[in-house]
Amino acid sequence: MTSTQxxxxxxxxAAKSGRVTHAGEILAERTIDPGFARGPQAxxxxxxxxxxxxxGGDSLGIGVPGLIDxxxxxxxxxxxxxxxxxxxxxxxxxxxxxxxxEQVHVENDANAAAVxxxxxxxxxxxxxxxxxxxxxxxxxxxxLGGELFAGAGMGGEVGHVVIDPRGPQCGCGKLGCVEAYAxxxxxxxxxxxxxxPADKPGDLVLLAQRARDGHxxxxxxxxxxxxxxxxxxxxxxxxxxxxxxxxxGGFSGALDVLEPGxxxxxxxxxxxxxxxxxxxxxxxxxxAAGWIGAARVAMTAREALRSRS
Length: 309
Prior knowledge:
With about 300 residues, this protein is of the alpha/beta class. Helices cover about 40% and strands about 20% of the residues.
């Protein structure tokens, strides 16, 4: 009988989910409103029902934004998930879906997306890569030697590399993080401040298109935003000699016009003339990356557990 895993990517407005085989065949997908207004316990009830609606699986992986304890499966805090504070997501879901606790796995959402892209997406075949999510903030998932690397739990957080300690305040409370310069939120703020595009300030899709069309003010701003993003990636190159960066999230659609600036920023903040050799790839799994990666994390953990028994 084919082993299947269910993955869930729990976001602030939707839970994206699916069931996938060991070979990467997607059997079912579904997106629902988790109903956060009803409280975290009701959300967990909904997610358990979602697991069963998808047909169930041999294990369950869930990607969650925020600070998590990967070993215990606790969510310490999540700014975008009301009530998810010191919550035993692993234990609560295991009880609800009828799986042993060790067959439910909780992962940071950016890490899960990175695993998904390296398994079935743009990073297929790569051994080392940083997956950068350009959205409301900037998330990062680090893959080294084909395995997710999270350190003690917070590895890969490239969005909080400080590029100017006198810069604007980031959502984390620090000053000058790359997230405060190059996330979709920051890009919109910068476009509004510059009154770009002139006919619809702050519209990032239009901003990118006008940059592609050769409009100098828009092209210059996108290059500046890209340069600031590259300044956050340069230290990664210095530390790890990492040559592959994969960009997901809504703002990644502007990668083509951000790329010249990204390469300038990498060159500025690294050494050895390696910037031209760096691959800048756009993620291919879209909104499915998180749940696919969460399922893959659960699958890999299950295989490791079986090999030890």
